[in-house]
Design brief:
This protein is α+β, with helices and mostly antiparallel strands. The protein has a domain of 35 residues. It has 9 helices and 9 strands. Helix 3 packs across helix 8. The protein is extended.
Amino acid sequence: MVFVSAEKLKNHKKNQCELVNIESFPAEPTIYKPAQNTIRSLLTKYSIKDADQYIDHFIVYDFEAILKPTATQHGENTVFTNEHIPVSVSVADSLTEEVRCFVNDDPKMLLTDMFKYIGDVSVKIQQYNVNKYKSLLQKIINAHGLTGMEIPGVNLSKTYKMSGVENWIEEGNYDSFFDFHSSLGFGKQRSDYGKLKQQLDQVPVFGFNSGRYDINLIKRDLFAVIGTDNIKSVIKNPNYMCIATSDIKMLDISNYVPAGTSYDKYLTTYLGGCKCDDKIRCVCGLGKGLFPYE
């Protein structure tokens, strides 16, 4: 045996060349472990069997833009020849299955119309979510109660159960359980009800490649329209991974599908693609559409 140094020779143990080293590794990850699904954990904790952990409905959108000539000098060697200006947006949702298109040459007004409609649809999806998990929500209230810190306009020192909530609804203080649910407020230290409320109230709003294109296209006016109160964002430059308010959570679906996914490839693979002679004026419904809301 040849040693690379005298130190290696000195440390070498005679007759140990055939020693077998056994390496062991932990069966479970010890550095990173994904957080458990909040809804599934609460369903298990409170023994609810009549619902699954999935949020069933969502909203999707897609912007179209035009190129506005600018010829703007940027530095010594760069000239911006065109600027992308949003002129239309299409919005659809999985609950009503309605598609709405907004067209406006004023980007801020376009966003105002878009998010007003999204807000209206979000309320319908929130109502669906609360109805789906009503038994879980009511069981949490009976188990722990809600305090005056969470219910507006009541005694701060008292704790209230479902019997009190039902009395308020009968007296006309609230139109429904959803109306009561919507009035509740929770601080940073959220209870089980607060954690579930956040999951049910934040309606997913998906775009395709929106983190890189659509959000950057509209971000000049976006926060002026949706506001900056109680807003959180996750940015992996230049990609917006998530923008969340108390009512919506804007996500890029391309972060959750295999690389290279496109609507055109989907249609070609599973439905054979468009057979029309005029691909631009497709009438068969299998042409490349405006992924993902069509």
